[in-house]
Design goal:
282 residues; globular; alpha/beta; 9 helices; six-stranded mixed beta sheet; 12 strands; 21% strand; binds zinc ion; Metallo-beta-lactamase, Chain A
């Protein structure tokens, strides 16, 4: 089986007031014939015109606005052509996840139906501030998934790509149509849990903990707080059952991002030793 190359990208480092530094953890998966991007962080237009993100987000979450962090820039720096990004899978459409969509105007954008509807309608005050319509004013090639008819480790899921297997796993709560994204690797799964939780301590099976500022923030921005907690408990159960075969991480936890990036670097170094000429991927 072809072994997909997975890169971990931080597409918007953030320093929220009173909380720990956060990342915007995105994945770039090279399938051998195309690229798949999971979430997009902030994009070029957000950096060029930060006002569109709103004063509240800029002043309280304090994102680093620098073109070098955008997914399109990092993809070029890795030696890939951004035009090869044929599919983007979004965990949800909050402004810190959808900002880079316009940098890949030809890509298919996979989104759960409940999320698509929530972002297009923006019915509540919270939804009016969290979804920035300018981020999809270019008219993305939406692929709206309204059924989750596959089974992924006991979770209903919608398959997006077959080789490697990439599935959307609905985990509503943070937003109406929020989902995790499962990416198959040769000997394990990566589960990008989006904003199902913000801090690694929330997934600690013995002693759950989370900095107070992040606990309050998550409660404040949850579409359905009780539902979010129910889904989080399901994630903990998954980790309890199979911690080695499924690697769960969230969008914003810096420690998880650092560990996975380091593993990726080590893996590439080992690969380079085995393969003296050329490099993996394209
Ligand atoms: Zn987020």
């Amino acid at each position: 089986m072809y072994s997909p190359t997975v890169h971990h990208l931080d597409c918007a480092p953030m320093q929220p007031v009173g909380g720990p530094p956060l990342v915007a953890h995105c994945l770039l998966v090279s399938t051998g014939s195309s690229l798949v991007l999971v979430d997009t962080g902030l994009g070029v237009a957000d950096v060029m015109d930060p006002r569109r993100l709103g004063a509240l987000f800029r002043k309280t979450v304090r994102p680093t606005l620098d073109l070098s962090y955008t997914a399109v820039h990092q993809i070029r720096a890795l030696g890939y052509d951004p035009r090869d990004v044929q599919d983007i899978v979004v965990t949800h459409l909050d402004l810190d996840h959808a900002g880079g969509l316009a940098d890949f105007p030809d890509a298919r954008v996979h989104v759960m139906a409940d999320e698509y509807r929530a972002a297009m309608r923006r019915e509540t005050r919270l939804e009016a501030s969290r979804y920035v319509t300018a981020q999809w004013a270019h008219g993305p090639r939406w692929v709206v998934h309204d059924t989750a008819d596959s089974d992924w480790h006991g979770f209903a899921a919608a398959r997006v790509v077959r080789s490697p297997d990439i599935l959307m796993v609905p985990l509503p709560g943070h937003t109406r149509g929020h989902c995790a994204v499962a990416v198959q690797q040769p000997s394990r799964w990566l589960l990008h849990a989006g904003d199902a939780y913000f801090f690694h301590g929330e997934m600690d099976l013995r002693r759950q903990r989370c900095p107070r500022a992040l606990t309050l923030h998550q409660r404040m921005v949850a579409d359905n707080h009780a539902e979010r907690l129910t889904q989080l408990e399901r994630l903990r159960e998954l980790r309890r059952e199979d911690p080695r075969l499924i690697r769960i991480f969230s969008s914003h936890d810096a420690q998880e991002f650092d560990r996975l990036s380091e593993e990726e670097r080590m893996g590439r170094r080992r690969g380079a030793l085995r393969r003296p000429i050329g490099r993996s991927g394209f």
